[in-house]
Amino acid sequence: LPGWSEDRVERLKALWADGLSASQVAKELGGVTRNAVIGKIHRLGLAGRAAGGRIARPRPASSPPPRRPAAPRAAPRAPMIAA
């Protein structure tokens, strides 16, 4: 297995900065898995990309759940009068 030579680490940094995904970097380098690339990126502190990468899509604002109509209330009972 090739491992992480200084040249490969520099290439990893350049590919990551160019916005390639971990899978794409692994294919470019050869001999390493996506998970190995992710681990090395984190150990090097390169978690944020300089350019490209996945585009964050804004989430639609969630509306509050529809209100249920109020349950009909029973008419108050008249007090019982003892005869």
Report on the structure:
The chain has 83 residues and is mainly alpha-helical. The protein is built from three helices and no strands. The protein has helices at residues 6-17, 22-29, 34-44. The longest helix is centred in the N-terminal third of the chain and has 12 residues, at 6-17. The N and C termini lie far apart (101 Å). The model has no long low-confidence stretch (mean pLDDT 82).
List the helices and strands and how they pair.
Elements: H1 6-17, H2 22-29, H3 34-44
Q: What percent of the residues sit in helical stretches (DSSP H or I)?
A: 25-40%
Q: Choose one word for the global shape.
A: rod-shaped
Query: Biggest sheet, open or closed, and with what strands and sense?
Result: none
- Derived from helix and strand composition plus strand pairing, the structural class reads mainly alpha
How many helical elements?
A: 3
Q: Order of helices and strands, N to C?
A: HHH
- Gyration radius (Cα, Å) is 31 Å
Primary descriptors:
mainly alpha; 3 helices; 83 residues
Give a brief description.
The chain is mainly α.
